[in-house]
Amino acid sequence: MRFGDLLRLSFEALRAHKLRTFLTVLGIVIGVTSVIAIISIVVGMNEKITSLINSMGTSTFTISKYGIEDYKSQEAYREARKRKNFKFRDALAIERDCELCEEVGAEAVTFRQLKYGSDKMNNVAIAGITSNFINMTEFEVAEGRVHSEFEQDRYAQVALIGDKIRRELYEGLDVVGRELKIGIHKYEIIGLAKPRGSMLGEDLDEFVLIPITTLLKNYGSNREIEIFIKAPSEEALAETIDQARVILRSRRHLDFQEEDDFAVTTAEEWLEFYGSVTGTIQVVAVAIPLIALVVAGIVVMNIMMVSVTERTREIGIRKSLGARKRHIMLQFLSEALMMSVFGGAIGIGLGILLAKALAGAGDLPFVISKLAILGGIFISTGVGVVFGLYPAMKGARLDPVDAMRFE
Q: Beta partners for 269?
């Protein structure tokens, strides 16, 4: 039997049972669409998170009261809470005494109400930063500037705002030079940050940056401070960390046998932590549509079993006219494959469209994973082969005499 004849016979058999074929293909379409969309969203989310973490710089590390390990259990977190907060003078001491430290900065955060005219925003993150903050990260300014060291030393009431603040309070206005009220204190806006978008519904542009000295003066000095340190290079990162640790251990009067009462974290460690937290979730997210594909495969097998039963007399007649086992098996197998491949092709197309829509809604990078597309092709084809093989073999093994007698 020629390949063209085989395809024509398979197509005619499927067209004869349109509703049955449609329902079978629909199950495969749903499964493949889900696989393509979920994998693409997972890849896009990973790219976004990786980009945000790496924006700190691969040669930059942080020193803070809490570390990654302290968030892994309640007991560890309770113990970490007993540690002393860092003071801004600790960052200044590292800047003075650490020979390898290329840049040393600090950050403290509070949450306050913003007000401009009669418009308000509640519970907005106010970050007090050192003037060299943008030198240590990939933070970008769209208009104006970040405060200077001179302004920092003099507790200047100046602020750089995120794009959401502009949209909510200053829509249609030039923001640089305008007044912003944070709590009971008034500030002059000197800069606007470049928009960073949102992720999973969380707006990344809802923040205000002010001098760290001003924040500590206006909103309380006894608050947690995180220290940012930039090493000369990735190769010098470990040695730079050691120098900073020695300085802080001395300032905190720790004996040589005592453990650090602070945490040092690098960008690589944050990426590893993110991977460990989300790895299982991602596997489950991909496994669910794969289960749907298995169910679709079972439907394919059941439909093909019904088809074999309905066409038993046809099989007997064809065998009596000289058709061999492999001809019968190939025909039924090609029918299963045709439904699976057709459903897979539609599923890939819909999966790409769904991934694009979801990426746009979540402000994630739109990434079409080649692995996901190849996986969709192989999975849908595999469903047709695996679940269509048994019915095809059963039809091929029918005895022609018994088949012709079948009512």
A: none
Residue 8, Cβ density class (10 Å: 0-12 exposed, 13-18 middle, ≥19 buried): exposed
**65 touches 231 (CB < 8 A):** no
Q: What is the pLDDT of residue 383?
A: 73
Query: What is the predicted pLDDT for the residue at 221?
Result: 82
Q: From residue 392, give the alpha-carbon distance in Å to each of 285, 323, 355, 360, 383.
A: 33, 14, 36, 44, 14
Q: Which residue in the block uniquely carries the two structure tokens 């002059």?
A: 188
Low-confidence ranges of the chain (pLDDT < 70): 1-17, 52-57, 199-201, 277, 285-286, 307-312, 314-323, 325-328, 332, 362-363, 390-392, 394-407
Taking the C-alpha atoms of residue 308 and residue 315, their distance in angstroms, rounded to an integer, is 8
Residue-level pLDDT at 312: 67
For 106-143, letters b (16+ CB in 10 Å) and e give bbbbbebebbbeeeebeebebbbbbbbbbebbebeeeb
Position 96 scores a pLDDT of 92
pLDDT value of residue 327: 67
**CA 262/CA 278 separation, integer angstroms:** 26
